[in-house]
Design a protein that fits this description.
The complex is a heterodimer of chains A (about 425) and B (about 350). Chain A is α/β, with parallel strands linked by helices and about 425 residues long. Chain A folds into 2 domains: about 220 residues, 3-Layer(aba) Sandwich (Rossmann fold), CATH 3.40.50; about 110 residues, Rossmann fold. A 7-stranded mixed beta sheet of chain A has the order 9-8-10-11-12-17-18, with helices on one face. A 6-stranded mixed beta sheet of chain A has the order 3-4-2-5-6-7, with helices on both faces. A 3-stranded antiparallel beta sheet of chain A has the order 1-14-13. The longest helix of chain A has 21 residues. Chain B has about 350 residues and is mostly helical. Chain B contains 15 helices and 4 strands. In chain B, strands 1-4 form a two-stranded antiparallel ribbon. Chain B has a two-stranded antiparallel ribbon with strand order 2-3. Classes of the chains: A alpha/beta (about 425), B mainly alpha (about 350). Chains A and B meet through helix 1, strand 9, helix 8, helix 9 and helix 10 of A and helix 3, strand 1, helix 11, helix 12 and helix 13 of B.
């Protein structure tokens, strides 16, 4: 009996070690990406084109006459964060429709994966996309956690990915393991957003004591860290840096613990529904009745104030800001109303629109068209073309991509304040302050 | 006899005791350090305990459904969390339409009762249907088979609600009468909603105990739980009693759904999963199969989750202790199971089985 138990224990230990060795990636996905790159290079060497020979370092995509230019989206289009994904997806569709659905004489095909705003969803989407060698580029992901899991696969398959809303600094930090070639973003790095949120709280609101809450996601964790660092640097005091779990509902214990430090503002750059719960329950905790609330772009969605109710009134949100008087943006909103209906449900549509245009422009730039209409696209050439983007006039300002993949400059950010109007269904809120 | 005793104490047991003792030591040291720091006031400790009690009451109500069914069928009804969700969801439609028409503002008490009635009826009907369609045909099958059907049924219900009502978060209406706080003395105060939750849960649990102990059906339920075959020989309609058990557990889950929504004011199709898991943990903690154990387990779990991170971990200097809330809850489960393998009140079950 004893021996059997020991044997079982050791078996378990061995099994767990084996599992650990496989790591997040797993053998299956590795095989998949290998197959994908193989398929891609195979397709490249098979090129029957008259005179064209693929000299690209990581292969080419060949598109026969009549075949579509295939791009994919990897967005969170279902679940609690669906408004974020739908917002980006609509903008991608508009950008494609702007070109009549065609590029260099080929129809544009858009397929997509739902990434669920978590690492598992990102991993699954990355695996599927990287296995399809016809895909040239990806618009996605929405959440930084998705990008962390998906990007190694997509990068290895030679594709490019442009994210409209990843903000985690690590993704474009060349010294960090989450940084992969072929990754770009039109979203602002958290280093910008955390800073302006802290500057707003300290300089504009004149606050001296703040607390932060994150949910363990790379997005929220890094954003609150930058916020806390900058706030302390400016001379303020950070009374607590707490965390909750995704899926928690009872936030009162954590809020009570925060109340012990008597902060004037709580900064919680997280998502729905945890953000709603924190906002609503903060009003019910002794000592926090008058505390100011501040969230970030993860909560910048029309569903947030409505679902939170009166507690959301007065709350500050930092988020992407596009000048509503900008003619191009007005035209974009008109297209949205015509083609999709209503107004964009979240704040990253302009970023997604710019991302799609950068991708389509770059494809156009590097495409080699044969006499019979076959198009060849070098994958490395495409990457280089996007790294070389300078002074692109987009809806979110003038974009220039640096060698790490950051295309946004941080100028398209603002602080908004929710009021009763948003609680009763108005969207978007008016901008309060711009750096 | 003596040699038998020595043989019983084996390596695994010793190891488990050492783990248990180490955890206990950690808890004691952590609590001591936290209290010594005096960072939190008595009012705050009181608030934390009350939050935990309210949350624990909801866990307890759901846990009763798991434990009642287990007591009779020896099966874990994993679809129970979705029964909870469906009650909350349909109750939401009742509450929000009454809120919109102004009925809730005029007759708040009646409105709340109607919400409870709608939610409990929905849950009961669904549970009875589930029993009839998914579990009864498999009554004679090996024990793992209904377990898998239960998981299937859980997914089925979840995705039916997702398909019918979409994926977004819905905000539960704010009911004026249960907003605000009631002062006790000095700075001590309790929120009305927490009083409502705790009292409603206590009332329902008391009713359940009375029902099981003093009615004929209750007696029959206890008989079936002890031995189905003999109960059938005594003239008890076993199938009917099983349906009754499912209905009873589901009604409690439906009520728990409404209370949960009163507290957190958010409704989604996946809202059942985590409370379901926690309630199942509470049922095991208390000794599965034992209704009193489920109540105790639920309250324990709620209070530990609420007080634990601050009390045990804050003093040890662990950053962001609330992220470790679930670790504490499940560590406690492991501790209880090490020292009392049948759960807090589990011995009655093991005695009757022995």
């Amino acid at each position: 009996m004893n021996k059997r138990l020991l044997a079982l224990l050791s078996l378990l230990a061995i099994a767990s070690m084996a599992l650990a060795a496989c790591g997040g990636g797993g053998a299956a996905t590795e095989a998949a990406t290998e197959a994908a790159t193989e398929a891609a290079t195979e397709a490249a060497t098979e090129a029957p084109a008259a005179g064209f020979e693929c000299t690209d370092a990581i292969g080419c995509v060949d598109i026969a006459p009549g075949d579509p230019i295939h791009i994919a989206y990897a967005l969170t289009v279902s679940g609690a964060t669906a408004s974020l994904g739908e917002d980006s997806k609509g903008a991608i569709e508009i950008a494609i429709a702007d070109r009549g659905g065609e590029l260099v004489g080929h129809p544009i095909e858009l397929t997509g994966e739902d990434t669920l705003c978590n690492a598992e969803g990102g991993q699954a989407a990355g695996t599927k996309i990287s296995a399809d060698a016809t895909i040239i580029g990806v618009i996605g992901t929405n959440c930084s956690s998705e990008a962390r899991a998906a990007m190694p696969l997509i990068s290895q398959a030679g594709m490019v990915m442009i994210s409209p809303s990843n903000t985690n600094p690590d993704l474009t930090d060349p010294t960090h393991s989450d940084h992969h070639p072929g990754y770009f973003r039109t979203a602002h790095n958290d280093l910008f957003q955390g800073r302006i949120a802290a500057e707003f709280a300290y300089n504009e609101l004149g606050l001296k004591k703040v607390a932060t809450i994150h949910d363990g996601s790379p997005y929220a964790e890094s954003l609150q860290r930058v916020f806390a660092e900058v706030f302390a640097e400016l001379g303020g005091e950070v009374t607590a840096q707490e965390a909750v779990n995704v899926g928690d509902t009872d936030m009162k214990p954590v809020l009570t613990s925060i109340a012990a430090g008597a902060p004037e503002l709580i900064y919680f750059p997280i998502f729905e529904p945890e953000g709603n719960l924190i906002a609503a329950q903060s009003k019910e905790v002794a000592g926090l009745e008058n505390v100011l609330l501040m969230g970030a772009d993860g909560l910048f969605a029309d569903t947030f104030p409505e679902a939170t109710g009166s507690a959301a009134s007065g709350m500050y949100l930092s988020g992407p800001y596009v000048d509503v008087n900008n003619e191009a943006y007005k035209a974009f909103l008109q297209k949205w109303a015509d083609q999709i209906g209503g107004v964009p449900p979240s704040g990253f549509h302009a970023h997604a629109y710019d991302a799609t245009n950068i991708l389509l422009n770059a494809i156009e730039e590097v495409a080699v068209v044969d006499a019979d209409g076959t198009v060849h696209i070098g994958r490395q050439a495409l990457r280089d073309a996007i790294y070389a983007v300078k002074g692109f006039a987009g809806l979110t300002g003038t974009l220039s991509c640096d060698e790490n993949g950051d295309c946004a400059t941080g100028e398209a950010l603002g602080v908004f304040q929710l009021s009763d109007a948003e609680v009763n269904g108005a969207w978007p809120p008016p901008v309060l302050w711009q750096p | 006899m003596q040699s038998y005793r020595i043989k019983k104490i084996n390596f695994t047991d010793v190891f488990m005791w050492v783990v248990g003792a180490a955890l206990l030591l950690l808890i004691v040291v952590g609590s001591f350090l936290t209290l010594q720091e005096e960072k939190y006031t008595a009012v705050q400790w009181f608030d934390l305990a009350v939050f935990g009690l309210a949350q624990g009451s909801v866990y307890a109500l759901i846990a009763l459904g798991y434990t009642l069914v287990y007591g009779i069928l020896r099966m874990i009804n994993f679809a129970h969390s979705e029964i909870f969700m469906s009650g909350a969801f349909i109750g939401y439609f009742a509450a929000s339409s009454m809120q919109k028409s102004g009925f809730m503002q005029e007759n708040p008490l009646l409105g709340i009762l109607i919400t409870f009635f709608v939610a409990m009826t929905t849950s009961t009907v669904l549970a009875v249907l589930l029993e009839r369609i998914a579990y009864r045909p498999l009554r004679g099958a090996p024990r793992l088979v209904p377990l898998i059907t239960a998981i299937g049924a859980s997914f089925f219900l979840q995705y039916v609600f997702r398909g019918l009502f979409g994926t977004h978060n819905r905000a539960y209406p704010e009911i004026e009468i249960i907003k605000g706080t009631v002062p006790i003395s000095g700075d001590f105060q309790i929120q009305k909603i927490q009083i409502v939750v705790i009292l409603a849960a206590a009332l329902m649990m008391a009713l359940l105990v009375l029902f099981v102990q003093y009615t004929k059906t209750g007696k029959a339920m206890r008989a079936v739980s002890e031995d189905k075959a003999v109960a059938a020989l005594m003239g008890i309609d076993v199938d009917k009693i099983i349906v009754n058990t499912f209905a009873l557990g589901a009604a409690l889950a439906g009520a728990a759904g409404v209370l949960y929504c009163f507290m957190f004011r958010i409704v989604t199709f996946y809202m059942g999963f985590i409370p379901g898991i926690k309630a199942f943990t509470a049922a095991v903690l208390g000794g599965i199969g034992n209704p009193a154990g489920a109540m105790l387990g639920g309250l324990f779990l709620g209070i530990f989750e609420s007080l634990g991170p601050t009390l045990f971990l804050d003093g040890l200097g662990i950053p962001a202790p609330y992220q470790l809330k679930d670790v504490i809850a499940f560590t406690m489960l492991v501790m209880v199971l090490i020292f009392r393998p049948t759960g807090i009140l589990g011995e009655r079950l093991s005695k009757t089985k022995a």
